[in-house]
């Protein structure tokens, strides 16, 4: 079985490609290497994938010729997107990379005579400022990111309803772990502690609640989606841990693992930033027989270990 992973050189995509390869599934990757964050980070990820024999195509979903790539796939996991809430990202970036890119991918998928699954990867941000209920809750996105990801999700599911595209959508909650994007909470915090610099904390974010979900558990859920593809067509499924922590508790966990306090610098809050995410995963348990296994402490330990060795370059950082 060949699975096309969009955004394969990114954070979740690279972890997923390696996981599928370990499970005997052939991953194909596609990535545009855009400059939202350093393309060199993604090219390093791509180099790791290539050493394991994973094929990657460099192509922009919104503008490139993707038909021949899509035609090779038995399944698609659509991770590529304009991520996050960023004051420096214009609306056009979200429109092109979340809406146009998904539309063109769906159009290519509709032409395939071998496709058995189109797994759209969405986000808890579609729920809005409080993402705490099940999949039946009406979406209320409060950011361009959440709004455009909801549109992308609904286009995929519209083609399932109207044309029988074998599609589902997975709404991910607060993913963290090795190779995470540098602007995210955990790598930014680890970097600040390692370099003895200030860590910027938005407004009262320390009190915000999060379902911090380890990337390895996310990859297991996507693998379960592929293996249960006949059961989940047309479904929206929350994927995350049903344990909830405050951002403050996450910060304290990193400080404990690294043995050093962070220098917190409070800055103005960002509009649209979620106040609480707490994943209801009853549906994932029922349809996928999936359960998150990695507790926060273990996940943070693995993330710090990766960062300090692979990014910070200190093999003996614990000494």
CATH-assigned homologous superfamily of the domain at 2-175 and 214-239: NAD(P)-binding Rossmann-like Domain
Q: How far do the termini sit from each other? A: 45 Å
CATH structural fold name of the domain at 2-175 and 214-239: Rossmann fold
Number of helices: 10
Rg (C-alpha, Å): 19 Å
Spatial shape: globular
Task: Extract low-pLDDT stretches.
Answer: none
User: Which structural class matches the secondary elements?
Assistant: alpha/beta
Helix content: 40-55%
Query: Beta-strand percentage?
Result: 15-25%
Number of strands: 15
Main CATH class of the domain at 2-175 and 214-239? Alpha Beta
Mean pLDDT: 94
The order of strands across the largest sheet is 3-2-1-4-5-7-12
What does the model show?
The chain has 10 helices and 15 strands. The protein has a domain at 2-175 and 214-239: Rossmann fold (3-Layer(aba) Sandwich), CATH 3.40.50. The chain is globular, with a radius of gyration of 19 Å. Strands 3-2-1-4-5-7-12 form a 7-stranded parallel sheet, with helices on both faces. Strand 4, helix 4 (91-110) and strand 5 (117-123) form a beta-alpha-beta unit. The chain is of the alpha/beta class and 319 residues long.
